[in-house]
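Deliverable D4.2, example record:
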Amino acid sequence: MPQAGLAWQTLHDAGALALVDTASHRAAAVARPCTPELGITDIVEAERLVQAWAETSTRGEAEDALAGRLAADPARLLRSLSWLLAMWAVTLHLRTGEQPHAVIRSLTYRGVWRSAEAPQCEGVWESLSQRVRIGALAALTGDSDAANAFRLAICQPSGIAEVLLYHALSVMADLARNMHAIGVDPTDLARTLAAYTTEPAAIQPASFRPLS
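Output generated by the structure prediction step:
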């Protein structure tokens, strides 16, 4: 179950694995998400669609599937993307030493629609990026205040969920490129976690913790 630059190890907790960076030898425990709002199957499906969206040949099909999931349950899909962002932030921390909170706070949109020629749009881009960051921090920490803030961020104003979906996908694509550039492959991390862990007996709001 190895990924480039990464290795997994078992833990006494059957619902979690240790993710180890093979270059730095830093490690973190990653547990299955287990709340009424989010489960591992949600994450694995979101991961599959994000990876398909990143490929030109499968983007159209992935967009259709993502639109269907957004229409059915926007909060669940956006929480899934937030969890993936949190996991990637932890993975970057293992390689670089930069704290996951700092990685998340640096997330921003760098797409083609953002440019110095349109400074009046900066507030819009920053507002959307901040909503994405709030979701990732909520997933990282399991903090109830952050979770409540994200709940509001994805439903107000009306129609914001669809905008946030594509903003988050662009942010994730940029982060994945940065990871590949330093020799870390985020492909199928959630799928591996699902394959080698079992459902915990109790609700676990936080999925990430350091290992001494």
